[in-house]
TrEMBL record:
Catalytic activity as recorded in UniProt: a (3S)-3-hydroxyacyl-CoA = a (2E)-enoyl-CoA + H2O; a 4-saturated-(3S)-3-hydroxyacyl-CoA = a (3E)-enoyl-CoA + H2O
Lipid biosynthesis listed as a keyword: no
Origin superkingdom: Bacteria
Organism of provenance: Paracoccus solventivorans
EC numbers: 4.2.1.17
Similarity remark: Belongs to the enoyl-CoA hydratase/isomerase family.
Role played: Could possibly oxidize fatty acids using specific components.
Classification via Gene3D superfamilies: 2-enoyl-CoA Hydratase, Chain A, domain 1, Lyase 2-enoyl-coa Hydratase, Chain A, domain 2
GO terms for MF: enoyl-CoA hydratase activity
Protein name: enoyl-CoA hydratase
Keywords for the protein's UniProt record, in alphabetical order: Fatty acid metabolism, Lipid metabolism, Lyase
CDD domains per the UniProt record, alphabetical: crotonase-like (cd06558)
One GO BP: fatty acid beta-oxidation
InterPro entries membership: ClpP/crotonase-like_dom_sf, Enoyl-CoA_hyd/isom_CS, Enoyl-CoA_hydra/iso, Enoyl-CoA_hydra_C
Length: 258
C-alpha cells in the first residue's frame, strides 16, 4: 500500500516503518497516525513479517502531535472525535514485537508513541520530552502514565511540569531506553535486534510480549501466576521440544511456530 506520510520496507522478515513528514519534524497529523495504525496492523497480519521497527529521521522521531492541526479544535471536537483514540487502540493491539528506533526529538505524542512500542533503542542525539505544558495542555496518550512507570514519579513530574527534555544518557540511566547507539548505527542496530527476535519461535515471542505487558495491568501475584501458566502452556508446542533438543544436541534450533 502507498502511504503519504510513511515509508514502509519489508526486509528479511522485519517491517521497517519510517515516519516521513520532514517538513514538520514528523509531527503526528491525523493522516500520519491513521496511516501508522494501518501499517502496523498490516504488518501484524502479514505472515512474512515477524517483528516491526518504527523510526523517524536523524533529526526527529516525532516532535509530537501536529500542533497546527489541533490548535483550533474545541473541547467537543476532541471529545467526540476521540482525538487519536481509535488509532492508538489499533497500535496497542499489535501482537508482534515493535521496536522504536529513536533519533533526535521524541516529544509529546512522539515520546508517547515510542513508549507504546515494546522497547526503545535510541541514538546519542535523542531528546525525550513531554512539553505539552508549554502549550497550556498536558500529555494525552501516555505521557503522565507510561512515562511514570518507566522513569518513576520524580522524573515524570519534572518532565511533565517543566517541559524539560531528557537526553539519551539520562534516558538510558532512567530505564526509558534499552540501549544508546551512534546515530549512524541506529537503524542497523534496531534491525539486528528485530532479526534476532524474528529468529525465535513466534509463539514464544507473542506469549513473552503478552506476559511482560501483563505486568503493567495486574498485581504481582496475578502476574506471576499468569506467567507461570503461560510458561506451562508453551510445553504444548513443538517449538519447546525443538528448542530444548537443539540445546542438548548443541545445534541451532529450527523453530516452526507450532
Ligand atoms: C506541528 C511542528 C511541530 C508540531 C515542529 N513543527 N514541531 N508542526 N506540530 N508538534 C514544525 C515547525 O512549525 C516548523 O515548521 C518545522 O516543524 C521545524 O521546526 P522548528 O521549530 O523550526 O525546528 P527547531 O527550531 O529545530 O525546533 C525543534 C523543536 C520545536 C524543539 C522540536 O519544533 C518544538 O518545540 N516543537 C513542538 C514540540 C511540542 O510541543 N510537542 C508537543 C505537541 S502536543 P515551519 O513551517 O515553521 O518551518 C502533543 C499532544 C499529544 O504531542 C496528545 C495527542 C492526543
Amino acid at each position: 500500500m502507498a502511504y503519504q506520510t510513511l515509508i514502509v520496507e519489508n526486509n528479511d522478515r522485519v517491517a521497517l516503518i519510517r515516519l516521513n513528514r520532514p517538513e514538520a519534524l514528523n509531527a503526528l497529523s491525523g493522516e500520519l497516525i491513521s496511516e501508522l495504525a494501518a501499517a502496523v496492523t498490516a504488518a501484524d497480519a502479514d505472515p512474512a513479517i515477524r517483528c516491526i521497527v518504527l523510526t523517524g529521521s536523524e533529526k526527529a522521531f516525532a516532535a509530537g502531535a501536529d500542533i497546527k492541526e489541533m490548535a483550533a479544535k474545541s473541547y467537543v471536537d476532541v471529545l467526540t472525535g476521540d482525538l487519536f483514540g481509535p488509532e492508538i487502540e489499533r497500535i496497542n493491539r499489535v501482537r508482534k514485537p515493535i521496536i522504536a528506533a529513536v533519533a533526535g526529538y521524541a516529544l509529546g505524542g512522539g515520546c508517547e508513541l515510542a513508549m507504546m512500542c515494546d522497547f526503545i533503542i535510541c541514538a546519542e542525539n535523542a531528546k525525550f520530552g513531554q512539553p505539552e505544558i508549554n502549550l497550556g495542555v498536558i500529555a494525552g496518550i501516555g505521557g503522565t502514565q507510561r512515562l511514570t512507570r518507566f522513569v518513576g514519579k520524580s522524573k515524570a513530574m519534572d518532565m511533565n511540569l517543566t517541559g524539560r527534555f531528557m537526553d539519551a544518557a539520562e534516558a538510558e540511566r532512567s530505564g526509558l531506553v534499552s540501549r544508546v547507539v551512534p546515530v549512524d548505527k541506529l537503524v542497523d542496530e534496531a534491525m539486528a535486534a528485530a532479526r534476532k527476535i524474528a529468529s525465535k519461535s513466534a509463539v514464544a515471542t507473542m506469549v513473552a510480549k503478552e506476559a511482560v505487558n501483563r505486568s503493567y495491568e495486574t498485581t504481582l501475584r496475578e502476574g506471576l501466576l499468569y506467567e507461570r501458566r503461560a510458561f506451562h502452556a508453551l510445553f504444548a508446542t513443538e517449538d519447546q521440544k525443538e528448542g530444548m533438543s537443539a540445546f542438548a544436541e548443541k545445534r541451532e534450533a529450527q523453530f516452526r511456530d507450532r
